Amino acid sequence: MPQIAQLAATYSSQIFWLLLTFGFVFFVIGLGMVPKIQSTVDARDSKIAEDLARAKAAFARADELEEEHRTRENEARAAAQGVVAEAKAKAVKDTEKQVATADKKIAGKIAEAEEAVRAASAAALTEIEGVAAEAAQDMVAKISGGKVTAAAAKKAVKAALNG
Amino acid sequence: MAESGKIDPMHQFAIEPLFGTDELSLGGYNIAFTNSALWMVITAVLLWVFVAGGMKRQLVPTRWQMAVEYFTGFINKLLLENAGEAGKKYVPYVFSLFMFILLANLLGLLPIGLFGLHPFTFTSHFTVTGVLAIISFSIVLLVGFFKHGLHFFSLFVPHGTPLPMIPVIFPIELVSFMVRPFSLGLRLFVAMTAGHVLLKVLAGFVINSTNAGLGYGAMVGIPSFVLMIGISALEMLVAVIQAYVFALLTSLYINDAEHLH
């Protein structure tokens, strides 16, 4: 086994070169380069963490804005609905009022017309009575030669007309 | 392997000085630039290239950057899970340890023997794994005593131990603590050595049986080769797992030193 057989002859050279090469590895690579690589990794990790945090915050902000927007929208909708209902009620009331005035006007006109009709029919009736009484007076005079007073004729006609 | 004298499955672990640096020395100690040292340098350079490719530091990472960040993130998570927030400052060390061992293990499995080159797995030498284990263990000791002072010894007395049991428990815990660097280093060394020996033995079967004749080649060589393919896949897994275990245990020991149970 050369590891044992050559031990005495080679240990100093082995140790010397090992310390030299491993020393180089430790001081140049381990101490000189590894921390820089680590710091790069750390910087990247913190950058990623920061970005993620920012994204999360932005996300929360967006949620908040959406919520705000939704409440505002709901408020606006409620207000609009109120306005619409009010307008509807007002319109209904206006219509009712107009209908009422129109009704009143129409009723007045109807009453007037009825009155006129009644007056006309009354006038016509009296005229017919008068004419009938005269006719009855004449008929009595011609047929019997008797004389009937206008008042009696009128009374008779009235009785005949009204049954 | 007496019959197949030509193929020594242990030869792959032999250390040979390269470029005529046999006599290179420092303060009386030999520091020859060996094949082992060459592969340490290759490992370190490749690791540097890999990590440097991930240094673009872009917010949106490139593929390479993602790969490097995956490894640093993996070690970061490992320490965070096992040693808590306090474990974060050990990321550079555990990352270096994990990647260095991982790359060494994997590079040692490269099939560059096909091109006449010889990959060398320096993590199959306990001189190397032992030094790495001792470094980890020293960090645990230094942090433990620096942070907790002599109170660190309470690590050897688990919570709720009855007073009369302390004299018995303390030595047991102390021994189990002192064994840690050995288990840490030996585990890696043994796993890597065993896998490579097994692969070389099977490769020897393939070569020797085929040399002995076509019939032997078909009967022994082909099953051995199929087995080698499976074991190579298993060895890749072991290479990753052993690097992970080394890093995991180091982070667990660091947790002990930081938090004392």
Q: Beta fraction of the residues of chain B?
A: under 5%
| Mean pLDDT reading of chain A | 88
- Please provide the ordered H/E string of secondary-structure elements of chain A: HHH
Order of SSEs of chain B: EEHHHHHHH
Radius of gyration of chain B: 22 Å
Oligomeric form of this entry? Answer: heterodimer
Main sheet record of chain B: 2 strands, antiparallel
Which structural class fits the helix and strand makeup of chain A?
Answer: mainly alpha
Report the C-alpha radius of gyration of chain A, rounded. 63 Å
Distance linking N and C termini of chain A: 166 Å
Low-confidence stretches of chain A are none
The domain count of chain A comes to 1
Count the strands of chain A?
0
- Please give the count of helices of chain A: 3
Report the largest inter-chain contact. A-B, 37 and 53 residues
| Largest beta-sheet details of chain A | none
Task: Kindly describe this structure.
- The complex is a heterodimer of chains A (163) and B (261).
- Chain A is built from three helices and no strands.
- Chain A is mostly helical.
- Chain A has one domain.
- In chain A, helix 2 crosses helix 3.
- The model of chain A has no long low-confidence stretch (mean pLDDT 88).
- Chain B is an all-alpha fold.
- Chain B has seven helices and two strands; from the N terminus they run ββααααααα.
- Chain B has helices at residues 35-53, 63-83, 91-107, 126-148, 166-178, 180-212, 214-259, and strands spanning 25-26, 29-30.
- In chain B, strands 1-2 form a two-stranded antiparallel sheet.
- In chain B, strand 1 and strand 2 form a beta hairpin.
- In chain B, helix 2 crosses helix 7, helix 4 runs parallel beside helix 7 and helix 6 (180-212) runs antiparallel to helix 7 (214-259).
- Chain B starts with 24 loop residues before the first strand and ends with a helix.
- The relative contact order of chain B is 0.14.
- The chains are: A mainly alpha (163), B mainly alpha (261).
- Chain A binds chain B through residues 1-3, 6-7, 9-22, 24-26, 28-31, 33-38, 40-41, 43-44, 47, and chain B through 10-11, 13-15, 17, 24, 26, 29-34, 36-37, 40-41, 43-44, 47-48, 51-52, 54-55, 57-59, 61, 68-69, 72-73, 76, 91-93, 95-96, 99-100, 122, 124-128, 131-132, 135, 189, 193.
